[in-house]
Design a protein that fits this description.
Blueprint (H helix, E strand, L loop, with lengths): L8 H8 L5 H7 L9 E2 L5 E4 L2 H14 L3 H10 L3 E2 L2 H10 L1 H11 L2 H4 L9 E10 L9 E8 L4 E9 L15 E5 L6 H9 L3 E5 L18 H5 L7 E8 L7 E9 L2 H15 L6 H6 L2 E6 L8 H25 L9 H21 L8 H5 L3 H12 L5
Parallel strand pairs: 4-7, 7-8
Antiparallel strand pairs: 1-2, 2-3, 4-5, 5-6, 8-11, 9-10, 10-11
Amino acid sequence: MQGEIGRDEDWDTIESKLPANWRELAREHGVLIEDRRRTDESGSGWKIRDPAALLRMILHHATSGASLRTTVALAAALGLAEISGAAFHKWMRKCGGWLAALVAEMTSSRSTFRLERWAGYEVIAADATTAQMPGAKGTTAYVHYALRLFDLCSVGIKVSSNKVGESLRNFVMKAGQLWIADRGYCNANSVAHAASAKAVVLIRFAFGPLPLFDAAGAKLDLRKKVLAIRRPGAIVEWPVCLHPRSGEPIVGRLIARRLTDAQAQKARDRLAREHGRSHVTREMLAFSNFVLLFTTVPKDRLSASLLTELYTLRWQVELEFKRDKSIAGLDTLPNRLDETIHSWICAKMLALELSRRLAEPSEPFPPSIVGSYALRVRASRIAALANRDRT
């Protein structure tokens, strides 16, 4: 189709929620829109005239579950673009950095995780989520991902079978990085892998998988020390050593923070939901009053209080991601290609951030409409707005 790209008021509203420099960010991240007609490898003529067209297609594809073929057909019908499914997939593969930058601009990531705030460390969040490969039923794979929290850029994505567990060995680590991870990564192999790369870790501690020792080599039983902390909000730390199977001992710190009564009650409620009340032991209840962290960050670089604050910030990111996983379908993978998976994840994060902004009470929508938006409905509406048939 010739003429101006199809536009409507709904898309204009969505575009108004994007960062003011969203088009410039596209160029900065190598997403260059060509105005002239070109030809893809299949021989089909294609053209994308505007970054808005590409973004609408990506949002529609990532949030609606539509196939590449359906997405490009809708785009052609609306006059957004003439492009083949193969060519659109190529665009998806190279848009991850742009999409991540948009999400980072729309959240507090750049200010919260700037290097100077955390003693010059590049803060990386590592996690894994179960996923389904295309056409499969049930969990068929794990997606191990690591995001640099300053700009939400991927520094590692690995798709493995559902038999490969959580470990920092799934990632390439570098000096100057501070990796944050949950209990699944609390093991000697993960810590040793980081130490060998001259990276440091901040990991949620669990008794058992990570035995700790004192400077003399005696095994520490820290349970009594932790339970002796009585004041809500108090933060206590102990110097500890880790003895990997090979290599020198690794010096670290165990940090304990006692939760407030309200926070502890939430932790107990979460235990009951996850394990069932009949399976929650007295020890589990006792330690639900605390957040325990193991770190190899030197004490003169970051204090215990700053590290507990950092873990809390990362925890918020993790909880949001896990919540969004079920809402936006983050557990359904488009394929096994790292670049596409990164774009897929970032596109869904962007759509959800847009949906939150559209639902803010300050938005010029009738209250009855805003009030009826459940987050799942809002996320699906983004897909509809991205490529709405106006016939």
